[in-house]
Amino acid sequence: MNAAKAIKDVCVIRVSQFMANGRWTRSVRTPVVKFALVLACGLLMLLSVQYLNTSSPSVKEEIEIDVEPKYVEALGYDYQPQPKEEKSWLPKLISYGRSSWSVSELDSFSDESRNILKNDQDISPQTLDPDNDSLLILTPVKNSAKHLTKYFKLIDKLKYPRHKISIAFLVSDSTDNTQQLLIQAKKKYQERGSEKMRFKRFEVFRQDFFYSLPRKQRHLYSKQLGRRTVMARARNYLWTRALENEQWVLWIDGDLDYYPPNIVHDMMAYDKDVLVPNCLVSRQISKFRWQYGVYDFNSWQETPRSISVVKKLNEDDFMIEGDEDAPFITHRKYMNGFGKDETIVPLDGVGGTFTLVKAHVHRSGIGFPTWLFQHQVETEGFAKLAKVNGFGVFGLPNYNIHHIHN
Ligand SMILES: Nc1nc2c(ncn2[C@@H]2O[C@H](COP(=O)(O)OP(=O)(O)O)[C@@H](O)[C@H]2O)c(=O)[nH]1
Ligand SMILES: [Mg+2]
């Protein structure tokens, strides 16, 4: 204590002597010292600007991350942000309400998207009751036996609480043991497992449509209307049977290879009526090179060019994406057409590989058209139908999931 006091006294005396001698004021007047002082101030300012620049992203991040767990906590469960290296990240919460769009931003959207951005505001958001929020996962399956192990591995990793998940399958026209495996899975989860392992409900429905198509032909344009209308029927049979009082419906195809465990939380945080991530697939581009590219071309935004294509169509013309033998190019903007910083974008069509829907959309009667609606059927028809009914349809072009390679 005494030593510290002594040092302090000496310092105080030295400084006051220095000031009293007038050396301080005199030395400031000399040009060299003045110059040195200006240089030091300049350096100090530069360093502060540099510091602010490097520190601002983390400040920004903190603010965003701060908002989201709070939001998700309101749903009533423990939210753990994924570390960046695990291929998942917290989505930025962006309000896409009417007021958040500048005129120039609105100009970049198609007429239909603009319309929806307006309509989106007219639908009051669903109340997120912490005690009652629940999720219904729906998966149509046909000859999916070989994919089911992976399917359940991914489901098991989901961070959304199992007791709030109901899961339902519709098996059609299968010639393998898909149905038996699902019944075994139901036993494993609901009967043999601990209370914690159980889903709220686990249902397996069966409905055959007596439709078969060699797998290799399933992406031919000429086969699409038939195939997709059967798929639409399968999806309608499934949601109309399975939906009870859940708040969210999540469509997951049976043949996905990867999605991040936090995906349900991440997507729910956007609070959109219909939302899809970007479904990629790994494709071989040369003998030793594989590359991820868009798998689900059914998620798209109309462009001025695609709108002019639509205007020239006959009423019963069917539009389909990504088929080499299609009679015309649609000129739509796919998920790979957006920039790296475009977190969420309005869409006009969606695919069904991983599609989060607020249950009130389906409850309002919006299903999967089995007839041509604005030249589309099934999932893209669903998106169009949802939009004309005032629901918001969006995509996350930089949030990736993977379809198996086939
Ligand atoms: N219930 C049912 N499911 C089907 C039918 N056709 C395909 N599926 C399932 O629907 C999902 C998507 O089908 P898929 O053939 O993978 O479509 P693609 O990836 O777009 O070529 C998968 O889970 C299929 O098993 C069908 O006719 N009925
Ligand atoms: Mg598939």
Q: pLDDT average, as an integer?
A: 77
**Helix count, per DSSP?**
12
* CATH-derived topology of the largest domain: Spore Coat Polysaccharide Biosynthesis Protein SpsA, Chain A
Q: How many domains? A: 2
- End-to-end separation in angstroms reads 77 Å
Strand content: 15-25%
Q: Could you walk me through the main structural features you see in this protein, from its secondary elements to its overall organization?
A:
- Pfam families: Anp1.
- The chain crosses the membrane at residues 32-52.
- Belongs to the ANP1/MMN9/VAN1 family.
- The protein is α/β, with parallel strands linked by helices and 406 residues long.
- The protein folds into 2 domains: 2-68, no CATH class; 84-403, Spore Coat Polysaccharide Biosynthesis Protein SpsA, Chain A, CATH 3.90.550.
- The protein is 40% helix and 17% strand.
- The protein has helices spanning 2-20, 23-29, 31-73, 103-107, 111-120, 148-157, 178-192, 221-242, 263-268, 304-311, 359-363, 378-388; strands at residues 135-141, 165-171, 201-206, 248-252, 256-258, 274-286, 289-294, 300-301, 333-334, 345-346, 354-358, 393-403.
- The strands form 2 sheets. Strands 1, 2, 3, 4, 5, 6, 7, 10, 11 and 12 form a 10-stranded mixed beta sheet that branches. The protein has a two-stranded antiparallel sheet with strand order 8-9.
- Helix 6 links the parallel strand 1 (135-141) and strand 2.
- Mean pLDDT is 77; it is low at 10-28 and 52-128.
- It binds guanosine-5'-diphosphate and magnesium ion.
- Guanosine-5'-diphosphate (GDP) binds at residues 139-142, 144, 170, 172-173, 209, 211, 218, 230-231, 234, 253-255.
